[in-house]
Amino acid sequence: MPEFDNQTAIVTGAGVGIGFEIARQLAGRGANVVLNDLDAELCRNAADKIRQAGNVCEPCPGDTSQTEVINRLVETAVRSFGKLTVLVANAGITTFGDFFEYQPDSLRRLMEVNLFGTFFLTQAATRQMVTQQSGRVLLMSSVTGHQSHKNLAAYGMTKAGLEMLAKNLVVDLSPHGITINCVAPGATLTERTLEDASYIETWSRITPTGRPATVQDIAHAAVFLVSPGAGHITGQSLVVDGGWTAMSPSPY
After folding, report:
1. Which of 48, 53, 78, 252 is most buried, by the most CB atoms less than 10 A from its CB?
2. 201 with 207: CB under 8 angstroms?
3. pLDDT value for 37
4. To the nearest whole percent, how much of the chain has pLDDT over 90?
């Protein structure tokens, strides 16, 4: 039987990149996937790609920093598939900025999406999981939550906060058979990062394994942590960065 047969997963921020690959792999292993992205057209196109491969995927677009969108995601999962067993809270934004010049509006939006949205999405999803007495939650962190990185003080702060959230929620979720973990990607080849012509050369040079990650590298780790085989792993953060945080050479 497929590894995720009879399971239902919500994956946010999954129109492209890491989120899409996680959704694709989960669906390919038997999960019913509710796929979210802020961009409605991107969301529908991504879900169509997964369905065209013969798998089950329901698009549910919207801004996951909004509680009405969060509630709709959980309601869609339960209404369409009867339960919710996996949450991958991948939606997030990155804002670069010099610390001395960083503006309140930028920090406010960063906090809304990365922290407020993830917190209340986790709350809504695990309320449903509590009724089932089982579930897997994965939050998307970053190596910048572990190591300093120029112009990413605010972003790194939010990612470190998510890792503490996962650790703290072990207390609340473990009695209900729910695990919660984080994946912290390093430099990864995505549609966004490949807009930088020097990205591959720079990160290949300073990553001990000799290359940046692919979205498949990150998704493999994510899918493992929400799989039945990871039932005794909770409150942990798995760094997937080709060894970069072990040495932390600056790209600048």
Report:
1. 78
2. no
3. 98
4. 97
Contacts with 124 (C-beta within 8 Å, 6 or more apart), sequence order:
70, 71, 73, 74
Cα 42 to its chain centre, rounded Å, is 17
The secondary element (H helix, E strand) that includes residue 140 is: strand 135-140
Domains, in order of start, for the chain? 8-239 (3.40.50.720)
Half-sphere exposure of 134 (CA within 13 A, CB side): 11
Residue 174 scores a pLDDT above 90 = yes
Any idea what the Cα angle at residue 38 is, between residues 33 and 40, rounded to 5°? 75
Residue 249 has what pLDDT?
A: 85
How far apart are alpha carbons 163 and 97 in whole angstroms?
22
Q: How many whole angstroms from its chain centre is CA 212?
A: 18
Tell me the three state secondary structure of residue 33: strand
Neighbours of 9 (CB within 10 A): 27
Q: Which of 102, 155, 199, 252 is catalytic?
A: 155
d(CA 81, CA 128): 13
H runs (alpha helix) in the chain:
17-28, 40-52, 67-81, 104-111, 118-132, 153-173, 199-206, 215-225, 244-247
Q: Are 164 and 122 in contact (CB under 8 A)?
A: no
Is 155 an annotated catalytic residue? yes
| Cα gap 223→123, rounded to integer Å | 21
Name the band, by pLDDT with cuts 50, 70 and 90, for residue 248.
confident
Q: How confident is the model at residue 1 (pLDDT cuts 50, 70, 90)?
A: low
What would the mean pLDDT of 3-18 be, rounded to a whole number?
A: 97
